[in-house]
Design goal:
The chain has about 250 residues and is of the alpha/beta class. It has helices at about 20-30, 45-55, 80-85, 95-100, 105-115, 130-135, 140-150, 175-190, 205-215, 230-245; strands at about 5-10, 35-40, 60, 85-90, 120-125, 160-165, 200, 220-225. Helix 1 (about 20-30) runs parallel beside helix 10 (about 230-245), helix 5 (about 105-115) crosses helix 7 (about 140-150) and helix 9 (about 205-215) runs parallel beside helix 10 (about 230-245). The structure holds phosphoenolpyruvate (PEP).
Length: about 250
């Protein structure tokens, strides 16, 4: 069985209306790629981004959602609202959410269940800090995050997990190819559907390192932050992913 290849862009808190031209620039490259191409802009651009992608293969997603379907949660966005705006996926448990908003594994599990209930694919992020890696605890940390944050019905859905070592996000540092390979294998063996689950690598993926990382057997794609803000960098990463299936 072939697992999907997914290249996902995370724009974080970047992008005004003028950034929407990005979608027209990447759509022809995405159309030629066997990889699924997803871009997660800020929530303010989601509906316009979805419209810009209408009739193309490019999908759009949210960067977070609330666990409740609706209610008195000022400033929050539900999974159904993301879906209504045109999202197909939602990033959950990004290390910046864990750090800036104190999100714990149980919160991420609840959000993942809400996302699935609303018809969204959750992209669940896990990853160790530098001190945890230096202490040799990276597998223990990631295994704990998986055990705590996978949805209750994880065995009956095809999961997307993003392994993002915290120290590699936005720093220009990437984990070594050997470290990525062994962590992805460790993650896969802990998933209820290892054969069909999609495991992304994230952490300073750029055009010049994408082919090597995406060439690894257990790496099914990438979650890309900084390089997803630039159409030529992002399309170069999509093209590197296309070569994975050649
Ligand atoms: C991310 O935002 O998930 C990420 C991996 O960022 P960057 O590619 O900039 O390291």
């Amino acid at each position: 069985m072939t697992r999907q290849t997914l290249i996902a862009g995370n724009w974080k808190m970047h992008g005004l209306t003028e950034a929407l031209g990005f979608f027209g620039a990447i759509a022809p490259i995405a159309a030629k790629s066997p990889a699924t191409v997803l871009v997660c802009p800020p929530a303010t651009l989601l509906q316009q981004a979805a419209r810009a992608c209408d009739g193309t293969v490019v999908r759009v997603g949210g960067q977070d959602c609330h666990a409740a379907p609706s209610g008195a949660h000022t400033g929050d966005i539900s999974a159904a609202m993301l879906r209504d705006a045109g999202a197909t996926h939602v990033i959950l448990g990004h290390s910046e959410r864990r750090a800036d908003h104190g999100e714990r594994d149980a919160d991420i599990r609840a959000k993942a269940e809400a996302a699935l209930a609303a018809g969204l694919v959750p992209v669940i992020c896990v990853g160790e800090t530098l001190s945890e890696r230096e202490a040799g605890r990276e597998v223990e940390i990631v295994a704990g995050q998986l055990a705590g944050s996978l949805p209750e019905n994880a065995a009956s859905v095809d999961l997307v997990i993003a392994y993002e070592p915290v120290w590699a996000i936005g720093t220009g540092l990437t984990a070594s190819v050997a470290d990525v390979a062994s962590m992805h294998a460790a993650i896969r063996e802990r998933l209820p559907n290892p054969a069909t689950s999609c495991i992304l690598y994230g952490g300073s993926v750029k055009p010049d390192n994408a082919a090597e990382l995406l060439g690894l057997a257990d790496v099914d794609g990438a979650l890309v932050g900084g390089a997803s803000l630039n159409a030529s960098d992002f399309t170069a990463i999509i093209e590197a992913a296309s070569r994975k299936r050649e």
